[in-house]
Each structure stands twice: as structure tokens, then as C-alpha cells.
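User: What would this chain look like folded?
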Amino acid sequence: MENYRKEYESDVHSRIAGAKNTMLAMAAPLESVSSSSQKPKPIPNPEVKRVEVKDTNQKAGLLIGLLAVGALKPAVALLSKFPWLVDVRSEIADLLIRILKVSISPLYESLLITKERNPSFAHPKARYGLSGISYPPPRKPILTLWAPIPPSTYTTDFVFFFPDWVDRVPISTSLDDLENVIEPLMRFVGLHVSRDPLFLTKFLRLGRLHLQPTILTEMTRKSPQENCIQNILFVSSGSRYFDITCYLLFLEERRLYCRSLEYYPAV
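Assistant: Here's the prediction, encoded as C-alpha cells.
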């Protein structure tokens, strides 16, 4: 595992070095007198040696397989020992976010969703042609080993081969479960949580509900949302109270903007 980590770090350093040696950085300074007779000298392209990271590590493959089928206990044991694997293999972060979405979905639907979703959004629409209206054919379900599953196409609907993995995921039933279930897994994901903006939006909305009673009373201890804001969402910010204030102001501005669109619709 140490050799695997060193290969990844050397690949990162080579990419950083290659980004610095760009054509713009190596260009000669502009001359004050334009000389059309002189031909520009060709700039040699430096050859940057990149170390190819081979995706043949057995522990990384085992971790991806465990997360795909929802086996959290052995997967968390591996992640606790090798937390840097999330940076090496981005699909690990996608699988963790996939688990977090399933865990947070019942809580989000019970607290924030007030109307039913339109089922037609998930189905292809009819097409209009010279012969009239042509309705799309029913999608054919196909088993896949990929997790998360690829998006559906016009005629194909991908289904994960082990649908019972959802039963192994701990479900959040209250806002206090954000501290016990969501936050520990989000620590492994870290900054890679930006790979799924939809999940991040749901988490921020639930965080606003969780922070409302905390802001009104005196803070005697850190709430789980404060920890997530400090460690994940606002890593480079200042004090924790400034982070929470900016977070709540952003949500309040968003709410007022949406309300203004309801009273003053665009013509």
C-alpha cells in the first residue's frame, strides 16, 4: 500500500509540474519594435514523465466492492486505515455519496418535501414527426455491475445486480442522526462531496433546520452541522460563528429570491 500511495503522490507532483510548464509561461517577452522578417523560434515542448497509477490494487478493489453491496462495517474498517484511498480512486467517493443519499432521503422527504413529484419527469416524452406523434418504447431493464448505476438511455434502464444493498444502509429518521450517521461518513468523503450537488443541497437544507434551535439559544457545544461546516464545507474560512452566519444568510437570500419570483413572475 505504501508503494501504491507513493505512485499516486508522484503522479500528482508530475501533473503539478506539467501545469506550470505551459506554453504561455515559456513564451518570450514581447518586443517593442515589430520585426516581421524575423521568424519566431519554435519553443521546445518539455516532456513530462507521468507515472501511470495502475488500478490493480487489491485492497482498493475490495473496498469498492464492499461499498457497492452496502457492507459498511468492513468498508469503514479499510477506510479508517487507508483514508487517502478516496483521493486515489474517485469512485470510492461516489459510492460513499450513494450511501449517504439513501440514508438521508427519508428524512429529507418527511421534513422538506410538501408536494408529490411529477412521475413524467423520469420518462422520455413523445416525439412529433411527419407521421404524427410517436411514443417512446418501454425501457428495457439491463443488469449492470457498475455502481453507482449509469444514467438511463432512451431505450435502456440499468439495474444494479444486487438491489438488496439498500437494506444494509442505516437510515436517518431524525435530525440527530445527522451527527451519528451522516457526519462520520462525510469525513471520509471530505471535499469530494462537491461531486454530487444534489446531495449537497439536501444536506444544507437539513442543516438549516438543525441549526435553527442552536442559533436561538446559547451554544454550549459544537453541533454536528458546525463540524461539517468547519471541516468540509468551509475549510478555509475564519471563525465558526462567521461560517454559520454566512451559511444562514445565503439560505435566507435564496428563500427571499424564490418568494419574490412567486409574487413578481417574469412576463
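Residues 240-263 form the longest helix (24 residues). If you want, I can go into more detail on any region.
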